[in-house]
TrEMBL record, chain A:
Organism per entry: Streptomyces pratensis (strain ATCC 33331 / IAF-45CD)
Name of this protein: Oligopeptide/dipeptide ABC transporter, ATPase subunit
Keywords: ATP-binding, Cell inner membrane, Cell membrane, Membrane, Nucleotide-binding, Translocase, Transport
Subcellular location: Cell membrane
A GO cellular component annotation in the UniProt record: plasma membrane
Molecular function per GO: ATP binding; ATP hydrolysis activity
Region feature (Disordered): 1-22
Top-rank taxon, per record: Bacteria
Family designation: Belongs to the ABC transporter superfamily.
All residue ranges annotated as the ABC transporter domain in the record: 24-275
Automatic annotation (TrEMBL), chain B:
Keyword Membrane attached: yes
Regions crossing the membrane: 12-31, 96-118, 130-154, 174-192, 224-249, 275-300
Every ABC transmembrane type-1 domain range: 94-297
UniProt membrane topology term: Multi-pass membrane protein
Subcellular location(s) of the protein: Cell membrane
Entries under Pfam families matching the protein: BPD_transp_1, BPD_transp_1_N
Native source species: Streptomyces pratensis (strain ATCC 33331 / IAF-45CD)
CDD domains: TM_PBP2
UniProt protein name: Binding-protein-dependent transport systems inner membrane component
Record keywords: Cell membrane, Membrane, Transmembrane, Transmembrane helix, Transport
Highest taxon of source: Bacteria
Family: Belongs to the binding-protein-dependent transport system permease family.
Amino acid sequence: MTIIDKTADVPAPRGSNDESGPLLEVRDLHVEFHTRDGVAKAVNGVNYSVSAGETLAVLGESGSGKSVTAQAIMGILDMPPGHIPKGEILFRGQDMLKMSNEERRQIRGQKIAMIFQDALSSLNPVLSVGYQLGEMFRVHQGLSKKEAKAKSIALMDRVRIPAAKERVNDYPHQFSGGMRQRIMIAMALALEPDLIIADEPTTALDVTVQAQVMDLLAELQRDFNMGLILITHDLGVVADVADKIAVMYAGRIVETAPVHEIYKRPAHPYTKGLLESIPRLDQKGQELYAIKGLPPNLLHVPSGCAFNPRCTMAQDICRTEIPALRPVTEQDGTELVGRGSACHFWKETIHG
Amino acid sequence: MGRYVIRRLLQMIPVFFGTTLLIFLMVNVMGDPIAGLCGDRQCDPATAAQLRTEFGLDKPVWQQYLTYMGNIFTGDFGTAFNGQKVTELMATAFPITIRLTIVAIVFEIVIGISLGVVTGLRRGRPVDTVVLILTLVVIAVPTFVTGLLLQLLLGVEWGIIKPSVSSEAPVDELIVPGLVLASVSLAYVTRLTRTSIAENARADYVRTAVAKGLPRRRVVVRHLLRNSLIPVVTFIGTDVGALMGGAIVTERIFNIHGVGYQLYQGILRQNSQTVVGFVTVLVLVFLAANLIVDLLYAVLDPRIRYA
């Protein structure tokens, strides 16, 4: 029984993949938060990887550890209370967890950039957007104020903000929600990083703007051949832009797959439940399916498979033994490339 | 912005007249100023009556107030009973108190904000606890105790400073009195900055600034501090007025002949012209400081726009 420790085996999807090996590789990452009530195990052994030009969607409920993993990659976890007891985060083969603070700072913004969920609170309210964009060039490239401003205007044009030249000195609160998110994207793109982590970039936006922002993000990713980690709980968003998916539950990856296969044949009961809870037009009038129960308390994760209290297929083994992420195969044993499931009964789930 | 300033200036007019009227009435209630002038001895009735007519004290209070206000607008603040013009007293007293206030404010800004930033970023650590306890002590102990103690230790026992400030009151002699005057406000500024910094340190935009790869110093100074200073600026602004009028204790201890000293003498001698004159100017200082604080708001926080 082999345990999959990476999911980069999907044939090069978008853009050329001339770098050898993945851009970013997370290996057996654990993150804990030491709180007054005990140790909350937010991430319990996550493995994933992203190559240049590739989009990995990390899917999961609130509290599943998807954002915490991203923050650990960026190095912006609050430590303490956060703590990384185990694991490696390899960027171009180098473990970032072993780097000095200064080395990590050099990577942040220049090599790996992050787009946050709520652009209004994530942008500084008392500084103009031009200043906040220009800061990237001034700090990392040592440009003058004037050069930085010109670059900021070009960036705002690039993310299609109308009248960029007139609006460069405006403040975040003077922009609409969609425009603010574009500014966040522009800020992440400023130094043409190798990897962008987008933490629920469209959650705070209305549906029409969501599509525009996602299209823009996908387009820019193609143009710059960047790796993209897209953190979301929106299955609709994922289908359009992602190459591969990692589903997280209680700090673990429970299923990995190339994007379209997961919709056709989920190999984990949790993924199956998620897909069934999407409203569908052909099931109009019927009651919408919902996964029973609540996400687990991270202070007391259930023994065995963390999903067992909510799972319709749970057996005794699920309560005692933690299922490892194993490769998923066809019924005849041929390997399904890039697929993995952390369920004792993946065969029954996918083929049954 | 311009319209806002004009509106605020117009609002000051009723406040100005209201406060001066109140002070004028209060000073009149204090007792007979002529009796105060004679000191402990009984006044000669003829002289007293003559003085009353001379100072216009035989007229009704409202008439006195109107005459007084009329005089103020021509720049005449009246004469103190010792014959010196009140404006002359002001000309010597205010520069001294302004110097003292500036020293105190500089202490508040430099020490208070620095301590606030340090403790706010290291909440719960030993530095934080020590500073918190120190500020609590400073707030709890009355100014005259810290003042007299410092004067005794630094001035008399160790001889580091002169225990009493000379009449010119140069800045170097005002450093210790300024620190005493600032002490309580300094403690408040420290605590206010600490809370504000600690609260904003968790803000999303600070996380963004870190994620942008900015050096920590830049994150703290440009992103965190700028947002955290808004409540602190309000406090320091209103404190300017309070320090100028409230220096009575400190000025008495260190024998500084500033506004506080003159006010004290004025009250002691029941000299209404001096008291009302000085307080009137202090009211103006308060009003101006408040307006400047409100305008500074808009500079610090672009979300506030005055129309």
